[in-house]
Amino acid sequence: MSEPILSVSGLKRSFVQGDVTIEVLRGVDFDLAPGEIVALLGPSGSGKSTLLQAVGLPGGGFAGSIRIDGVEAASLDNEGRTKVRREALGFIYQFHHLRPDSSAMENVVLPQLVQGHSEADALVRSAELLGALGLAARVDHKPSKLSGGEQQRVAVARALANRPRLILADEPTGNLDEGTADVVFGQFVELVRAEGSAALVATH
Ligand code: ADP
Ligand code: MG
Description:
37% of the residues lie in helices and 26% in strands. By secondary structure, it is α/β, with parallel strands linked by helices. The strands form 2 sheets. A 4-stranded antiparallel β-sheet has the order 2-1-4-5, covered by helices on one side. A 4-stranded parallel β-sheet has the order 3-8-7-6, sandwiched between helices. A hairpin with a 2-residue loop joins strand 4 (63-68) and strand 5 (71-72). Helix 3 (104-114) crosses helix 4 (119-132) and helix 3 runs parallel beside helix 5 (148-160). Adenosine-5'-diphosphate (ADP) binds at residues 15, 17, 22, 24, 42, 44-50.
């Protein structure tokens, strides 16, 4: 058995609102193997986003253990968490948070430059990802000139750009109509598989 990419144990989180304490995560335990894609299912308010947030290493507010690639999150300082976030994790949200003034290509290139890749390599990688998602003819479009489904595909390409070993996706297609959501979700899963990454995906 290979070492899990993600190992969560005894994870707890509660929120205090006035006199009321809401226990959202009450000792969550699970492992995710490299290459595994797991859906987090549950109604709105059940704690999916809270769980994904914890795995995104906010650095406080959670009790229990989170190990990413064998490294215990609690042992990391700020800098260490930022490094894991940048190098091992990819994030996709319900609303894409693309840079509005940058093209699809630039949105996918930028995180690679931040990571220290050359512009030439970043352009090749971006073209490969956007092409795999059917956006070869849209690379110069800004987000406002793309459909909702296309915008989310760009967000998928951006999240995968630095080859993260673990993708965290919070209702990545929750903002799309059902038909488009199915297509984008299918492409997302196919691409994550092809890349050999693991993914934890909240979906309702
Ligand atoms: P989901 O993503 O499954 O819809 P969330 O993780 O967003 O659920 O929320 C789970 C519960 O935690 C909800 O009852 C929500 O109201 C509560 N909650 C989430 N974030 C906060 C917060 N910052 N302060 C107080 N309560 C919160
Ligand atoms: Mg949520």
